[in-house]
Structure formats: C-alpha cells, structure tokens
Amino acid sequence: MKTYPIAIELTVWFDLGLNQYEITIDGVSKLSVKRTDDVLHSRELTDSETERLIEAIESITVPVSEEMLADPSNKASSSYELIIESAHFSLEFNWENLDVENSRTHAFEPLVKLASLIQSLDLDH
Question: pTM of this prediction?
Fold first, then answer.
C-alpha cells in the first residue's frame, strides 16, 4: 500500500544524555540516529520494519491520564517527545517514565510501544 510520506521524530532524554531518532516512511524508508556524543548513523528500513511502524502509528490513541500528586521523591529517569507528521495529520506527544508507571488505565501503552519499536530499530543493525 502506498501511503503519503510520514516523518517521525523521537527524542529520548535519560540520565546519561539523549538519543534522537528520525524516520521517514516513503518510497525508500530511512532511520537516522544521533546520540549525545554526536555519533550519527543512518540506514534504510526493510519493508517489514516499515509495515511494523505503520501498524504502530495506526494504533496510537490520545493518552488521557490521571493527574499525579506532587511527590518530591519521585523523579523522572527518562522523558520522551514523539512527533508524527504526514500530509493529513501532525501529532506531538510528551511524557515521562513516571506518567507510564502511574497510569492505571495504560493510556500511554501505544506510545510506549511505538517508542520501543523505534529504539529497537537502532539495535537491529
């Protein structure tokens, strides 16, 4: 199936720095990864990887979650920013690991799955 081009940006902040992932889904889909130490690498995605990404994007829902009570002992160990854009939509999500851990409704599950898939693509090669 031919879709409109899709651009995905995922930035992950964690204790030791950050990783930035940029993906384009088009005729030739690509992944680029930049780490805190400015090491940049990129590669083309397989058709199977592209299909898995499209399926994960299609499962995204807006995470309506509970408000957390302020607790100074709870400190986030990682933060995420996910941007997905195409001709007919633009979505931006921001969350921390504490949001996921404290969500009784699992509202962030589709976002976490997509973020995990993107990060795993970096490990596949």
Answer: 0.87
